[in-house]
Each structure stands twice: as structure tokens, then as C-alpha cells.
From TrEMBL:
InterPro entries: DUF1275. PANTHER family: SLR0142 PROTEIN (PTHR37314), UPF0700 TRANSMEMBRANE PROTEIN YOAK (PTHR37314:SF4). Keywords: Membrane, Transmembrane, Transmembrane helix. This is Uncharacterized membrane protein YoaK (UPF0700 family). Pfam families: DUF1275 (PF06912). The lineage of its organism: Bacteria, Bacillati, Actinomycetota, Actinomycetes, Streptosporangiales. It comes from the Bacteria. The chain crosses the membrane at residues 16-36, 41-61, 94-116, 122-142, 176-196, 202-220.
Amino acid sequence: MTRAEPPDQGRSHGPLPGLLLIITLSTGMIDTVSYLELGQVFVAAMTGNLIFLGLGLTGLGPLPAPSVSILAYAVGAACGGRVAFSTLSRRSRLLAWGTASHAGLVGVAALLLTLYGFDAPWPRHAVLALLALSMGWQYAIVRRLKVPDVTTTVVTTTITRLFGEISGRETQRRRLLMIGTLLCGVLLSGLLRRTLGPVSPLWASGVLLGVCSVMTYLAARRPGAERWNRTLPAR
């Protein structure tokens, strides 16, 4: 095993790790809906989508769904990382506005499915594109915050670091929380689907993201927030 310290380990992140865990919970819920209802494709786990795309290109699986998801995710990542909110100088502003926008996209997707259902191809592909775009957007913004071991969308690196590196107790706890929260999102989505219907996890995710945005705004106004709400590097 190797010893490694994640970036920004010595810096204060205040409430950001907890807020990002809320986003991680919503990610598990949204990816569950996309896999079960939108053609067995992901909107956050792009590694799986690349495999599905390869299978589609060889005629062993559907091609449109993974193609739409990957392209939309790329557009969202470009918007979140290079264009949108690039002038926002504080971490809290970036997370609050970025998460509010994410909640809006998820809400539109949930509304489309509520109105048109899952049967017609065009709303299904439109919803897939909206959700994948929102995930690319979200992860690009999360990366700019530079909170170690909280990625909100993927856990491959987190699992590798959990078992492959010798780290402090707090670091390992954060990694376990990240993995467990994503799993809880999947479990919660499955429970909501069984009890309230297939669109309910999306509505719940939108509410969670909206709450996260408000909590970020309020946290930035508390005394001592300057310790974690530092200025971001210019883009």
C-alpha cells in the first residue's frame, strides 16, 4: 500500500463536504432512474456509457441512448467548467448558483416525464440529454471546488484510494461516506420508485438540490465563513 495525501488536505472546507454529499445522494437517485427508465444507460457514470457505446457500435446493444448521454454530458462539462459562472469568485457562489441550475434542469426533466411518460422516444431522449447535461455541469463545478475525495458522480478512484492508500482516519471516513452516500441514493431511488412511481426520484432529487443550494447560500453568511469560502483561481 502507498501513502498519499489528497490535494488541499490542510485547507478548511467548512460545510462543503456535507453539501457535496447531498449532491452525491441525488446522483445515485438520478442515475438509477436513467438506467431503469431511459434505456439502461447512465447520465453520471460515463465509463459505463463508453462500454455501452462500444457495444452499440458493434451491434450488441442500443446506440442512440449512450451517444446522447455522452454528448450531453460533454456539453454540460464544457459549460460548467469553461463558460458558466467563470466570473464567480467565491466557492459558495459557484456551488449555490451551479446547484440551483442543476436543480432546475432536473425539475424540467421530471416535468417532461410527468407530462409525456416514458413510452414516446422524443421525451425520453430529451430527458436523457437534460439529465446528462446537468451531471456534466455539476461535476465540472464540483472539481473547481477542490474538495478531496468527494467527487459526487464516480467512486472508482475513491474505492481505489480507500483500499490502496494509507491515509488518516478523517480521510478514510470521508471516502467511506462518499461511497455509502451514492449507494444510499440508489436505495432511496428504488424505494421511491416502488412506492410513488418512476418519476418520483427525479422530483425528490430536484428538491434535494434546491435545498443544497439554499443551505450553501446560508452557510456563506455565517460568521467565520471566510475560512472556507475562499476566492477561486481565475479561469
